[in-house]
Amino acid sequence: MKIALAGAGAFGEKHLDACRQIDGVEVISVVGRRLEPTQAVAAKYGIPHACTELAEALEQPGLDAVILATPTQMHAAQAIQCMDAGKHVQVEIPLCDSLADGEAVLAKSQETGLVAMVGHTRRFNPSHQFIHDKIIAGDLAVQQMDVQTYFFRRRNMNAKGEPRSWTDHLLWHHAAHTVDLFAYQAGAIVQANAIEGPIHPELGIAMDMSIQLKSESGAICTLSLSFNNDGPLGTFFRYICDNGTWIARYDDLVTGKEEPVDLSGVAVSSNGIELQDREFVAAIREGREPNASVAQVMPCYRVLDALERQFVQ
């Protein structure tokens, strides 16, 4: 399978590392904003083609699919561009930063029948898979999820500490992980409330946010997000269940008493990004809908839209 990667930044390289682990997958083109650093990434990974325009990558002979790790504001239009070119597409989270754009991607995926998937990595992290498997087996039910998503970000920097050309967003990007995961683990969301802190004078976004969710099962979720936290970076999930408590930190899991949980038998890899990319490739090969398809994650973006409208009331 021949794949192109658009977005040669910090997260794009995570996908290149993941693709190396999947048999029969070849990345044949990489797209970036500036040619020289994009060529450097291509050289590092042995990719034969580098360019600055997605349209050029889409014309590469034999191309089957595209992974988009580009700025949020480009995701929806580029996903549609890929499907218009007859290519399967995986879009990094978030799918969009407006509901109308997300619905347009959904409509295009339904029109073309191509695999269209969104990088909701929490569905694939072994830590969250462990909990999900127990829920499906009837061994436990979520009572409450308590989630903290914390960064210290006063400038536009990527995960490698390098400047980037776009502004991140607590609601449409970082909250999307938890809103989707909560529904995935506890059932459809039936109530959602949010408040945001002051708007940053230069970045134009709220730097702090608090979200409350309730699912059809009666479970609740409390999500705190901040770009002002001077401490460990990332998201920490506490699952308070009817039969135990767990704390998930990306691919790792401990009990509520900080006892490590062995996740070695949960999946073929301990890397959530690799597992996500394996699902994308498998869905294409098997001609089926992937976990985290555009259709499956759209309820998340409808909730985010409803929350955003609360901010302007």
Proportion in β-strands: 15-25%
Average pLDDT taken over every residue? 94
Strand order of the largest sheet: 8-9-10-7-11-12-13
Question: Got a strand count?
Answer: 13
Detail the poorly predicted runs.
Answer: none
Helix fraction, binned, reads: 25-40%
Outline the biggest β-sheet.
7 strands, mixed
Basic shape: globular
Structural class of the helices, strands and pairings?
alpha/beta
- Quaternary: single chain
Distance between the termini: 48 Å
Q: What pattern of helices and strands is seen along the backbone?
A: EHEHEHEHEHEHEHEEEEEEHH
Radius of gyration based on Cα positions = 19 Å
Features:
six-stranded parallel β-sheet, seven-stranded mixed β-sheet, 35% helix, 313 residues, alpha/beta, globular, 9 helices
Overview of the molecule:
The protein is α/β, with parallel strands linked by helices. The chain has helices spanning 10-19, 35-45, 54-58, 75-84, 99-112, 126-136, 170-186, 272-286, 294-311, and strands spanning 2-6, 26-31, 50-51, 65-68, 88-92, 116-119, 142-150, 189-196, 208-215, 220-226, 234-241, 244-249, 252-255. The strands form 2 sheets. Strands 8-9-10-7-11-12-13 form a 7-stranded mixed sheet, with helices on one face. The protein has a 6-stranded parallel sheet with strand order 3-2-1-4-5-6, sandwiched between helices. The mean pLDDT is 94.
